[in-house]
Amino acid sequence: MYQERILLTVKDILEKNFKIDTRGFRPQEVDKFLDIVIRDYEEWANIVNELEAEKNDLLNDNMRLKQEIRLLKTKLDVASTSETNVGSSNADVLRRLSNLEKIIYGKE
């Protein structure tokens, strides 16, 4: 995905041969190659910065979602506990009502 933004590979840099002039390497050729290397390094730094920003965004989203999950689990626990209490309190009320009916109307 990001490889098309980089012009040189490690192999290209290692295997680069400059033509030798009477006083050494041709300065224009070396300068041109170094300009490409500098451009690639700048692009690489941009890619790293973009990926770091994306990683930070994903970490923040992940943390937010984990907090939301914890909150929802807590709400679910509270809801299930209150349903259990309501269910048992309803059973208690029905049992007491039944006992009262037995006392009032006599045992059958």
What does this protein structure show overall?
The chain has 108 residues and is mainly alpha-helical. The protein has two helices and two strands, in the order αββα. The protein has helices spanning 10-14, 27-105; strands spanning 20-21, 24-25. The protein has a two-stranded antiparallel ribbon. β1 (20-21) and β2 form a beta hairpin. The mean pLDDT is 82.
Please write out the topology.
Elements: H1 10-14, E1 20-21, E2 24-25, H2 27-105
Antiparallel strand pairs: 1-2
Number of helices: 2
Calculate Rg over CA atoms.
Answer: 38 Å
Binned, the helix content reads over 70%
Strand order of the largest sheet: 1-2
Given the helix and strand composition, which structural class is it?
Answer: mainly alpha
* Overall average pLDDT: 82
- The H/E string reads HEEH
Poorly predicted spans = none
In what range is the share of β-strand residues? Answer: under 5%
Would you count the extended β strands for me?
A: 2
Categorize the overall geometry. rod-shaped
Q: Please give the largest β-sheet.
A: 2 strands, antiparallel
Q: How far do the termini sit from each other?
A: 83 Å
